[in-house]
Amino acid sequence: MERTKLPGIPETLAWADPSSGEVSFLADSTVYPLDAVYATAYVFLDRCWVLLGRHDGHWRVVLAPKKGPADDETLRAMLGEFANELLSSAWRHEITRQNRATIEAVVMHALGGAMGPPGLDELEEFDFSSEPFEDPLGIAQSWEEKYRKRTAEAANEPPSGSSAPRDAEGAAAATPANGREPSAAEADAVAGPAQGGDGDPESAR
After folding, report:
1. Residue 127 within a domain
2. Do residues 2 and 46 lie in contact, with contact meaning Cβ atoms separated by under 8 Å?
3. CA-to-CA distance for 75 and 185, rounded, in angstroms?
4. Hey, how many other C-beta atoms are within 10 angstroms of the C-beta on 147?
5. What secondary structure does DSSP assign to 119-155, as a single string?
6. What CATH number does the domain containing 41 carry?
7. pLDDT at 17
8. What is the pLDDT of residue 9?
9. Bridge-based pairing state of the strands 48-55 and 58-65
């Protein structure tokens, strides 16, 4: 196999084969996990054949364009795209590893909500002895608990068109508009015209 050095890339890391029109690339296995190499190779499956192998502690990647042999410039551009995608895949793999616990917790919570309400076996194991939580808006109350008290209070209230409360003699109890009881002078002024000029009830007739 003939090796051709690619411009700007060390020959120990990547080289081209003019006879077959393919390019080979070595990636450090301690830096790039195998899952990242698989993910990157999957991205390039529509454009080229991808061969993976091992070579002296490195992942060996061989890219062969599906349209036939390519020149060195095309192979160099394809190799650069593969290297950039491999770096992105390795970083995504590291983020997933660091946040695996959070991702699993979110997924389990979503699946648990999709499974519907708990069954009888789960309710038997549930601890109902814990202190009740504060619910000022009454969200956790049932419809009966929330509106039963209001219905009972409405039943005890007098109708809106009912008459005012009466005193012991059956007369309507007058309530001053200003909320205070009338004085003696005010009471005499009101009762005076009804009794006549001299206060005699007979003279008013």
Report:
1. no
2. no
3. 115
4. 12
5. -HHHHHHS---SPPPP-TT-TTS-HHHHHHHHHHHHH
6. 3.30.70.60
7. 85
8. 81
9. antiparallel
Q: Which two tokens stand for residue 187?
A: 């009471």
Tell me: pLDDT of 43 over 90. Answer: yes
Write b or e for each residue in 8-47: b if 16 or more Cβ atoms lie within 10 A of its Cβ, otherwise e: ebeeeebbbbeeebbbbbbbeeeebbeebbebbbeebeee
Contact 167, 176 (CB under 8 A): no
Choose among 4, 39, 35: nearest CA to 18.
Answer: 4
Q: What pTM value is reported for the model? A: 0.48
- pLDDT at residue 39 is higher than 90: yes
The domain in which residue 87 lies consists of 14-98
Instruction: Report pLDDT digits (tens) over 146-161.
Output: 777 666 666 666 665 5
Closest CA to 77 of 158, 156, 9: 9
Band of pLDDT at residue 58, cut at 50, 70 and 90: very high
- State the total domains in the chain: 1
SS3 97: helix
Taking a C-beta distance cutoff of 8 angstroms, is the pair 47, 17 a contact?
A: no
Residue 94: strand, helix, or coil: helix
Nearest to 84 by CA among 20, 32, 48: 32
Q: Answer yes or no: is 3 within a domain.
A: no
What is the band of 102 on the pLDDT scale with cuts at 50, 70, 90? confident
Tell me the backbone φ, ψ of residue 142, rounded to 5 degrees.
-75, 170
